[in-house]
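Thread title: Can someone regenerate the structure for this chain?

I was given the following input by a collaborator and told the matching structure tokens would be attached. They weren't. Posting the sequence so someone can regenerate them.
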Amino acid sequence: MDSRALYDGLIAYLCFLPLLTFHEFAHAWTAWKLGDDTAHSQGRVTVNPISHMEVVGTVVLPMLAIFLSAAGSGAANFIIGWGRPVPVIMSRLGNPRRDDTLVALAGPAMNLALAVIILAVAKLGRIAGIDSVANIAIQMAWLSLVLCFFNLLPIPPLDGSHALKNLIGMSEETYLRLCQYGFLAVIIAIQIPFVRDLVGLATHTTFNLIVLMLGFPSGN
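Best answer:
Regenerated them for you:
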């Protein structure tokens, strides 16, 4: 068991939880403001991580991936994590297709905004000479961008698939049928080099743009 890999994995998990929480909060808050109070009535318009956690997807599988990675097992690459989906009833939205797209994109948009804020904290950490804070903030911002662009993939039930569904006018029934195979599709997709490279390129490019905008080089 690689103790360093285990430590890094646990730190990454502690970074992942608030990023996931704010992602799901953004979905719930946007749906509420656009007319659907389903998530609000279930207590999902909150930044309490417990409200957005799903036992298997948020705890069991991520922890399994951490320990498998620390043990040097390649099986860790086949495991993904997720939060409890935010319920949205499209008929309650003022403009169902437009508003469903806005609700879906609110999560990735939140992750992008968080990356900017967290990298600003990293810059302050560098200026103050607190490298440990800066390094964790940089790792957290990078993870936030990975979540942003991963969720924008047009694979049901990821956020990007909602935008594509509404853009092409796909029926809700057809979309829900596709979602039945979504978990398998996502697992397969993340093993395709092109998909991983695409998410990595988007993450790397955006990360560099943000740190340059904030006034310190990405290599720091």
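The chain has a mean pLDDT of 90.
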